[in-house]
Amino acid sequence: MKKVLFSILFIGLMGSLFVACSNDDDAPIVITEEPDPDPTPDPDPTANSVLSGQITEDRTLTADQVWTLDGRVTVTNGATLTIEAGTIIKALGGQEANASVLIIARGATLNANGTAAQPIIMTSTADGIQAGETVGTLTENDRGLWGGLIVLGNAPCSLDGDVTEQQIEGIPANDPNGLYGGNDPADNSGTITYVSIRHGGTDIGEGNEINGLTLGGVGTGTTIDHIEVVANVDDGIEFFGGTVNASNLVVWAQGDDGIDIDQAYSGTVSNSVVIAGNVSDHALEIDGPEGSANGGFTLDGITLIGDQDTSRGEYADYRDGAQGATNNVFATNFQADKDVELDNNGVAQNFLDGALLFSNWIIEGVDPANSIFDEKTGDGESDIILNPTFTERATMWSTIGTSGGANTAVFGWTFASASGSL
Questions:
Q1: How are beta strands 109-113 and 120-124 bridged, if at all?
Q2: Spatial separation of the C-alpha atoms in residues 301 and 70, rounded to whole Å
Q3: Within the chain, what is the greatest distance between any pair of CA atoms?
């Protein structure tokens, strides 16, 4: 009897289990995992977007984020900094030793290869420009908000005392990465194309500002093409010696000189434009060698656009033994009392000797015979008397006209063009 009763109970129990298993649609089994007590968050895509100190190994800046330049950032000897087309770099402010500036030291390489559709833009953190944009929220009157771009090489320079190297202006004397100059005319600092440098030139000391683009002892192995500098406090682009060739340059609304040449720079600047702003000084300022080594620049296909509001705004100043040739120039919109100067004895003598040459200047609205070409000779600054005068000789290479100089159609990618100044 007990065996029968046990069998009945066992069968009943198994039947209940079968029914429970067959109804799993009505009572699903849910498995819950315990949370990770110390989860690792997703990485911040902008965590490494701040550039500071020294870049000592190869690095690439991508266009998918905006990069921040914090203080004096130096790409050191042997390292390469690559910047993708369309990349935006915004620099923090700061004065003197704390100024934000990007330095490409001797032996380092910068490959900054923008395109007309996707230029590389270096600007201030005060600029509201965002990734994918080419026009920001600042204007040509917003100057001195950061430093600038400095590229240094091993090419020859004519330096005071015939030394082979020197510290670049704008960098503290105790920073060895600020040295430039050497004995390699073909030195290669990289490729810099379609780059717009905006709102720089901060003070680093009394009367000492950083240029928009500084080229110190840069050699012919370097490519400088399609560069724009906008609203820099000091010069737009300055060549300290070197041999590099540069083409398709635009300088707009600089506070001092547009294109400045020093220390026997011996390359060619072609198809380039300087557009004065309301505080600009000379469009061109050309100096000669400081040591015994000579060298001759070439400017070819240059457009100079003056401004009616600036109190300075001269065409050009040739001084301190300048040597070279300025050919195929178109100048327009300068005030009536502005001029092209031979500034002292050394440059006047070079002109007489054929070491300083001019050809094919076209001046809109001004007869060159009416003395826009002015020598400061015989007036207390020089005792060399030109006879015929510089003005009289200029009639052989200058005319009145409405076009010439650079082919400005290639500058459609620039901020200056988008703003209607070019």
A1: unpaired
A2: 37
A3: 146
Domain boundaries, the chain: 54-320+334-339+410-418
Q: What is the DSSP string of 317-356?
A: EE-TT--EEEEEEEEES--TT--EEE-SHHHHHHHHHTSE
pTM recorded for the entire structure = 0.88
Show Cβ contacts of residue 297 under 8 Å, excluding neighbours closer than 6 positions: 239, 261, 265, 266, 267, 268, 269, 286, 323, 324, 325
Most confident of 7-11, 65-69, 96-100: 65-69
Classified as helix, coil or strand, 200 is coil
Which three-class secondary structure string do you get for 108-125?
CEEEEECCCCCCEEEEEC
Reading the block at residue 106, the tokens are 């001797």
Residue 291 C-beta-side C-alpha neighbours within 13 Å = 17
Alpha helices in 176-216 (DSSP H): none
Q: Give the mean model confidence (pLDDT) for residues 44-54.
A: 76
> Domain spanning 54-320+334-339+410-418 has what CATH number?
2.160.20.10
The amino acid sitting at 343 is: D
pLDDT digits (tens, 9 = 90+) for 258-276: 999 999 999 999 999 999 9
Say how far apart CA 114 and CA 197 lie, in whole Å.
Answer: 12
Instruction: Report yes or no: 321 and 295 within 8 Å, Cβ to Cβ.
Output: no
DSSP states along 71-120: SEEEEPTT-EEEE-TT-EEEE----GGG--EEEE-TT-EEEEE--SSS-E
Among 245, 242, 339, 256, CA closest to 289: 242
Radius of gyration of the chain (CA): 32
**CA gap 105, 178 in Å, rounded:** 7
DSSP for 238-265 reads: EEES----EEEEEEES-SS-SEEEETT-
